[in-house]
UniProtKB/TrEMBL annotation:
Pfam families documented for this protein: HTH_31, MLTR_LBD
GO MF annotations, alphabetized: DNA binding
Protein name: Transcriptional regulator with XRE-family HTH domain
CDD domains: HTH_XRE (cd00093)
Organism: Actinomycetospora succinea
Record domain HTH cro/C1-type: where: 34-85
Length: 287
């Protein structure tokens, strides 16, 4: 990673993009005339899942290197084009490098996530770290916005004691298939991204923390990841049985997880109810 080109350039670009963003286009209520066009800082912070203070520091040039995950969240909130998002990543010091894993979420992927609003959808990078999601995913699986990068990593949750998502239940067979598939997919990433330090660190830490991971890693299997079935035990709507299909994008090598109601279950009705409950909870929390 190289340092940012200029904190002043980054700050100016963020202010410009915020000023041009129509609040109505990103789902923000406009109940009274505004003194200035565009989003307020607190609205951008809410949409991106970061603190207002951090937005202020970014726009004042007092923060040099926002993480790739923060850049992706800002790009989503500001609806940046692919070229604009690439510019943001370069200004923040995340220059494109084919030897490193991309954390960029292209505009086309963001449109797909938004269009599938009645299904829980998440976007993960090639280390299986969650970098973007829609509201229904957060309502079903729990809001991940407050988690660290390691806390958002699906492999770390599966293999590290105390980090497993208590809402998700698998049979022993389902979990065995799932973790073998994920580890095999991760091994494939090592040849595509031999210079990615975060990937190497994750593998080293998992190997040290989990004998199960170490045994699977030592097997040397390379494969892709496909469908799995999950039972999500939700505290408000009960058990939701979903199938999870993993789609991989070509350019950025992202994993797009799409949850659909399992055939023969009542998951569709529970997801519809959850969408309503989740929206109400989000509205209450933001006022």
């Amino acid at each position: 990673m190289i340092g940012p080109v200029s904190t002043g350039e980054l700050a100016a670009a963020l202010r410009t993009w915020r000023d041009r963003t129509d609040p109505a286009d990103v789902g923000m209520a406009v109940n009274a005339p505004r003194r200035a066009p565009g989003l307020r800082r607190e609205e951008l912070a809410l949409l991106a899942g970061i603190s207002i203070d951090y937005v202020v520091r970014l726009e004042q040039g007092r923060t040099r290197t926002p993480s790739a995950q923060v850049c992706a969240a800002l790009a989503r909130a500001l609806r940046l084009s692919d070229h604009e998002q690439a510019h943001l990543f370069r200004l923040a010091g995340h220059a494109p490098d084919r030897g490193r894993i991309s954390r960029r979420v292209p505009a086309g992927v963001r449109r797909i996530v938004e269009a599938l609003h009645d299904h829980p959808v998440a976007v993960l990078d090639a280390t299986w770290t969650l970098i973007s999601w829609n509201p229904l995913y957060a309502a079903l699986m729990g809001d991940p916005s407050g988690l660290t990068d390691r806390g958002r990593n699906a492999l770390w949750k599966q293999f590290t004691e105390g980090h497993t998502n208590a809402r998700v239940q698998h049979s022993a067979q389902e979990r065995g298939v799932l973790v073998r598939s994920m580890v095999a997919d991760l091994r494939g990433s090592t040849s595509r991204y031999p210079d990615d330090a975060d990937l190497a660190t994750l593998i080293r830490d998992l190997y040290a923390a989990s004998e199960e991971f170490a045994a699977l890693w030592d097997s040397g299997v390379v494969a892709g990841h496909h469908q799995s079935r999950k039972t999500v035990v939700h505290p408000e709507v009960g058990d939701v049985v979903v199938d999870c299909d993993t789609l991989t994008t070509a350019e950025d090598d992202l994993r797009l997880l799409v949850f659909t109601p399992a055939p023969g279950s009542d998951a569709r009705g529970r997801l519809d109810l959850l969408a309503t409950v989740g929206t109400q909870a989000m509205t209450t929390a933001s006022t």
